[in-house]
Amino acid sequence: MTPAKLRYFLREALHNLWQFKTRHVFSLTIICFSFVTVGVVLSLSGNLRAKAGELSKNLTVIVYLKKDAPPADRDAAEAAVRSSPLIGSVRAVGPDQALDRFRTNFPDLRDILQNLGTNPFPTSIEAGLKDAGVPAERVLGFIAEVRKLAAVEDVQYNREWAGKVRALGRLVEAVGFFLGGILILASFFIISNVIKLNVLARRSEIEILRLVGATNTFIRVPFLIEGVVMGIAGAGLSLLIVLALIKSFPLYLGSSLGALQEIIAFRYLSVSQVFGLLGGGGLVGFLGSLSSIGRFLKI
User: Fold this and answer.
1) What is the distance between the alpha carbons of residues 32 and 241, in angstroms, rounded to a whole number?
2) Which of the residue ranges 15-24, 63-72, 101-110, 251-260 has the most confident prediction, judged by mean pLDDT?
3) What average pLDDT does the structure give for the chain?
4) With contact defined as beta carbons under 8 Å apart, do 99 and 113 qualify?
5) What CATH number corresponds to the domain at position 101?
6) pTM
7) pLDDT at 54 over 80
8) 93 and 13 housed in the same domain
9) Can you give the pLDDT at residue 254?
């Protein structure tokens, strides 16, 4: 392709975009909304996967002690936890410390604690595993033994939380990609119809080009470029909106979520995801244009 032809194709595509800007603005809006949905899903699910990975690397067994347990039984429970070869670090958390944590992580729920009038949190022992790759059977066996101790009320293991966070991430991806897929399919048909209208509006010019010997490719390329530009522009605009959401979320909503902000949060998209969205927008635009000119530009 010569530089002169390339300049002609680009000039014609940009001319079409400007001449029929009203319908193109509508198309860009739908494309942008479609890829914003996909971008938000990638951002949120990426954060969930990262948090699940962090939980898996920092596995902790939390032993909750009975409030009325004698000091001797409490000391025995802590000693049993410390003596396990699976445990690398042990930290005792008193009721007052647990209360302070709750107030910090869930500031909107402070009124509930005030209405209770008492501190509902028990003493707990936070035990970190030495090896994150230890078989689950050994950890579960250790937990079963700890549950038998007289001072122990309950035991929690955050590997289960890691699994739940991963499952939530997969659910978010499935629902988001389903909705995003529907919207992207709608974008495909909208681009196809916009290109169809542009072809019909310029049918006289197309007939003249045919009479002077223009090839099929020569006539079709500007419309294909037009679709690709719309797709990439819509995806690019969606990336800016997703970036704005990532920036503004902690300021306007994140702080009210307390500790949940660590889970329900947006994560910056990777370079591959950014180029994937841009490439996806261009592909949708190209296929939409190709479908349209294949049906309505019979030359």
Assistant:
1) 9
2) 63-72
3) 76
4) yes
5) 3.30.70.3040
6) 0.59
7) no
8) no
9) 47
